[in-house]
Amino acid sequence: MGTLWFWIVAVILTAYVVLDGFDIGVGIVYPFVARTEEERQHALRAIGPVWDGNEVWLIAAGGTLFFAFPLLYASAFSGFYMPLMIVLWLLILRGLSVELRMHVQEPLWRSFFDGLFFFSSSLLAIFFGAALANVIRGVPIGPDNYFYLPLWTDWRTGANPGILDWYTVIGGLMALLALSLHGALYLSLKTEGHLERRARAWARRLWPFVSLATVLAIPATVLARPDSLGNYRLYPGAFLAPIAVVLSLVAIPIALRRRSEFGAFLASCAYLSAMLCGAAAGLFPVLLPSTSSSGGSITIASAVAGPHTLRVGLAWWIFGIMLALLYFGIVYWLFRGKVAQHADTYGH
Question: From start to end of the chain, where are the E strands?
């Protein structure tokens, strides 16, 4: 049952990255692709109906961790308290930038919230990437299963790392590039006119950098955590994840050349999903590796809740996920297709 919940959490987090990832990506490329007030409104209408609903998956992931792996929840949320508070404020600021921008006609007001939208989206991508890199690299877990991480130490991985080091910075930059590409592809799919063409051009520019970062991520991960490839040797089926990463990366420029915006966006979704599945496969059955000799890693066996909790939780989770999928299916169906270039509302 613990293994099942491990992959449930992985799927929920993947859904969050794929769905809210294009919202964040739109915010990152927003000042570069939307040059006029009309284009900026056009870009915001593209994410307007769905951006807040996409964040539900992050809440669902936190709630699932709370009852399925309470020890991991307690340890991670205390050890990562400072970056989690920063992420919370960035989520709030991003929501404010989207919702308050159109309330006042003053150009200075709108420019401020445009800048806030870009700033909060960019930092969110960097912090999410750094957070995943922290989990892959490991943290100094003590005998009581708790840990403390300063913002940085000597910028090296090892027994006493900081939140930021050379590896987590690479993870943050890689997330920034990958979500920028994801957002540009979404804009090319959902918009029209100059904004669509500019978003497609930015996607073409970003693709080589994402590919290079992906290639560099493998040796960087091995250097940061030497046993990260152990599961790939034990379970050859895990190699399906890196194969899917390569295939999806190759598919993006091919789809762009064929003017298949939907195909390119789907390939980007597959790329992000495969990257996260590959990271989960490399960690299993460890939930949070330890870099310290005084405490062991938090594993599925040590962190999982009781059998009754998991059985009852599974029944309610199935009910809840069916409602969520129904809601998302209706919303994405209602707002399918291109966003109208000239509209006073969301304009589909």
Answer: 286-288, 298-299
- Of the candidates 77, 76, 264, the residue with the CA atom closest to the CA atom of residue 188: 264
Q: How far apart are CA 128 and CA 8, in angstroms?
A: 19
243-301 tens-digit pLDDT: 999 999 999 999 999 999 999 999 999 999 999 999 999 999 999 999 887 778 899 99
H-state helical runs in 138-192: 166-190
Q: Which of 58, 45, 67 lies closest to 18 in space, CA to CA?
A: 58
Helix, strand, coil content of the chain in percent (nearest 5) = 75, 5, 20
CA distances from 99 to 45, 52, 238, 288 (A): 11, 10, 42, 36
Interatomic CA distance for residues 179 and 29, integer angstroms = 9
Contacts of 26 (CB under 8 A, 6+ apart): 43, 46, 47, 121, 183, 186, 187
Collect all residues with Cβ–Cβ distance below 8 Å to 306 and sequence separation of at least 6.
none
What is the pTM (predicted TM-score) of this model?
0.93
Spatial CA neighbour of 347 closest among 37, 38, 45, 23: 45
